[in-house]
Write a structure and sequence with these properties.
Blueprint (H helix, E strand, L loop, with lengths): L14 E4 L1 H5 L8 H14 L3 E7 L11 H5 L9 E6 L2 H7 L5 E9 L2 H8 L3 H17 L3 E7 L12 H13 L4 E6 L6 H14 L4 E6 L6 H11 L3 E4 L20 H10 L8 H10 L6
Helix pairs in contact: 2-11, 7-8, 8-9
Length: about 290
């Protein structure tokens, strides 16, 4: 087995990742490709650090994302926003790396065996081998992997969970060359104390790794989670316009994403210079009613 030490350049600027893919993937009514393209192009003009725009997965698993390649071919990439696509297996990786426009490949590695099977139809051991293959493929194709530690704050299935289990897998992924890990609150069960303690622990144990947070929340809990993450030192976070979305593979009742518009207000109040085009953001907010209704 090959092991790598990644040194990730540090920056004090906040990386805000907008996740329309996560917001749309659970919709039962198929969103026409043309509408997806118009919506994503508006979000691209806003100027987020990264846009989680689609996924190369089985259309049987996530029917909404079956047109990701067609959408990608129509995106207007005129600013510095980077594209992230989710993959679930090596077949998806090989498809995604064909596209020069994509910077990041995201893979959900679960610390819950049950959820790994539900989400990627593979065991944790099999998925660890997939991660190794993804990292190798990314290095050969000038891409970077973002590995999500799914169910990072507990799971509803009764699988063993502890902060030590999360830390163990984070270290295993780092040993294999993962340069970016995103601690994921897949079903919105994280408490503020967990967010603070687990993020600080991982950041201290893995100082060379960029660690982000992908939190889900109810409308009443977003601010306390955002505050806990920010005060813990997190400077890479995912959100979705109006908090739409959730993981359809995790539970029947979806807990939405962190609402980007509220995250923006929070971060501006903290003095973070996000460099966003707020006029285009308002256009995207208005246009979202054509997608989510």
């Amino acid at each position: 087995m090959e092991f790598y030490l990644y040194t990730v350049s540090t920056t004090k600027s906040f990386k805000l990742i907008e996740c329309p893919r996560d917001a749309m993937q659970g919709l039962t009514e198929f969103v026409p490709t043309e509408l997806k393209v118009r919506y994503l192009n508006l979000l691209l003009e806003v100027g987020f650090d990264t846009l989680d725009f689609g996924s190369f997965v089985s259309p049987k698993a996530i029917p909404q994302m079956q047109d990701t390649a067609a959408v990608l071919n129509q995106l207007e990439l005129s600013n510095s926003t980077k594209l992230l696509a989710i993959v679930a297996n090596q077949r998806g990786v090989e498809e995604a790396v064909k596209y020069e426009e994509i910077t990041y490949l995201g893979f959900p590695f679960s610390v819950s065996e049950t959820f790994q099977q539900r989400n990627t139809n593979s065991s944790m051991d099999e998925s660890l081998k997939t991660v190794e293959s993804i990292l190798h493929t990314c290095r050969r194709n000038n891409k970077e992997a973002v590995i999500y530690l799914s169910m990072g704050f507990g799971n509803p299935y009764g699988d063993d969970y502890s902060p030590e289990i999360v830390a163990h897998w984070a270290k295993e992924l780092a040993k294999r060359g993962a340069g970016i890990l995103s601690l994921s609150d897949t079903i919105g069960m994280a408490k503020t104390e967990q967010i603070d303690s687990l993020y600080r622990h991982l950041a201290n144990e893995l100082p060379a790794i960029e660690i982000g947070l992908h939190l889900h929340s109810t409308p009443a809990s977003w601010e306390e989670k955002m505050e806990a993450a920010y005060l813990a030192g997190c400077r890479r976070m995912d959100g979705a316009l109006k908090g739409f979305g959730g993981c359809p593979m995790a539970a029947d009742d979806l807990t939405g994403n962190m609402p980007t518009e509220k995250m923006i207000s929070f971060l501006e109040a903290k003095g973070e210079a996000l460099g966003l085009n707020m006029n285009k953001w308002q256009e995207a907010l208005a246009f979202s009613s054509k997608i989510f209704h």
